[in-house]
Amino acid sequence: MADMTSMPNSTTVLIVGAGPSGLAAALSLLHHGFKDFVVVDAVEQGENTSRALVVHAATLEALDTIDCGEEIIAKGTKVRSINVGNRSSKLVFTDFSSLDKHTRHPYALVIPQNLTEYVLGEKIEGYGVTVHRPCKVASLKRNENDDHLTDVIFEDGKTITAKYVVGADGARSVVRRMAGIGFTDPKTGEQGDRITNLAQMVLADIVYEGRDNNDLEFLGTISPESFFLSIPMPNSFNELLAKNGQEVEGQIYRIGAGVPLVDGGIPHSPSMEYLQNLIDRFGPTMLSSDASVNPSSTPVRIKEVIWSTRFRTHSAIADKGFTRLDGDELQGTTVATDESTTKRGGVILLVGDAAHTHSPAGGQGMNLGIRDAVFLGEALIKHINASASQPSNVDTDYILREFAEERHKRALEVIAFSKYLLSLMGAQDKKISWFFPISATTVRDWVMWLGGKLGFMQARTAWAMSGLGGR
């Protein structure tokens, strides 16, 4: 970590945010041989909670292109199948082996976000690059001496001038807000735009006790009132926690559950008792703390809570991922007709949660952000080189516009997919209609069971989750 006193007064590229997207953007630039950039982050040290948990095949392939894939894979657990069922039996089995002919990564990699950040952070330090912390952006303004530059002012008054500012500073992005870019729900028309049983959710990292649970697999459990998830974490997560002074014995699991709105609001940092109640209500009976319900007659209880949080599921996307700060953008032209219409204002780009956010259904969020960042590196290098070799009145911004438009399109696709999954897993227990008096959740379970018997449906689900069809 480097403090603000060592930060230069100017740079070509300023990356705001040192989460997975910001670090991946920096590594992509380094991979292309570019080193004139600075990375800043608002917090004194990187996040120490697990948050996002899965890295899919398309993201691993993107990381491979900048020589970062193997380090990530070494710390994670390869999940080759996912089981989803009701509380007592399996309904559908998603087998990632169908991806064999499409990728060298036919699996979902379970690795907590803080471990992903740690690996990427170590990688960037190996290049001699440091993250300047804590550096909280307060405002952006056009440089008085050069219209093509942006002055980035931090809360302590320090200013750095940059030609390109990359906002990788999360869903509450200061860069996005200061650039005047809107951030709204795209309303894709998916059923997920409706209220579901997953409108509010809990996530937690826990340790079970009461049985030999080291063989528990990736489990999803649907019920008429909720969706429950239990995922074994890699042992490397225990090692990272120990390195940070938190010793945890035993297998750690990520659990997640929707909390019905009729239950009221979720407490901040849900307690062990609250989480246990959710498992007993919505989890598979094999994890129940009630011996009369648990098929093994051995109650399973939470032994330890490492981390827990609450959130509401929602989606939003930035109006645009590229703009010029308070400036003029050439649209659809190659050469400006006169000097008054040449492009002005420093370049502003958004990646990751600063550009789009959505529910965690399908584990797509961090994946999309990392791919944004990896592909941004190439686009930036092309723009920097083109701008240096072309007259100022030639429109080179088409490179960044095309990048931003492509990533916007991909984000809309992922948001639609996550909303579909949300509507499926969080379907409310209502009768379909008066003349067809059967529960919507019953029909869903039948359809999922039938689909799980069909190989092409398994392959289609694995393909959609992998991200390979829309990188």
Structure description:
Helices cover about 30% and strands about 25% of the residues. By secondary structure, the chain is of the alpha+beta class. The strands form five sheets. Strands 1, 2, 8, 9, 10, 11, 19 and 20 form an eight-stranded mixed beta sheet that branches. It has a seven-stranded mixed beta sheet with strand order 6-5-14-15-16-13-17, sandwiched between helices. It has a three-stranded antiparallel beta sheet with strand order 3-7-4. β9 (about 135-140) and β10 form a beta hairpin. Residues about 330-340 have low confidence and may be disordered.
Tell me the radius of gyration.
24 Å
- What is the average of the pLDDT values? 89
Category from helices, strands and their pairing = alpha+beta
- Strand-residue proportion: 15-25%
Tertiary shape: globular
Task: Sum up the structure in keywords.
471 residues; eight-stranded mixed sheet; alpha+beta; 31% helix
Outline the secondary-structure elements.
Blueprint: E1 10-16, H1 20-31, E2 37-40, E3 54-55, H2 57-65, H3 69-75, E4 77-79, E5 81-85, E6 90-95, E7 108-110, H4 113-126, E8 131-132, E9 137-142, E10 150-154, E11 159-167, H5 174-178, E12 183-184, E13 200-209, E14 219-222, E15 227-232, H6 235-243, E16 252-258, H7 272-282, E17 301-312, E18 316-318, E19 322-324, E20 347-350, E21 356-357, H8 365-389, H9 398-425, E22 431-433, E23 436-439, H10 440-452, H11 455-466
Parallel strand pairs: 1-2, 1-11, 2-8, 5-14, 11-20
Antiparallel strand pairs: 3-7, 4-7, 5-6, 9-10, 10-11, 12-18, 13-16, 13-17, 14-15, 15-16, 18-21, 19-20, 22-23
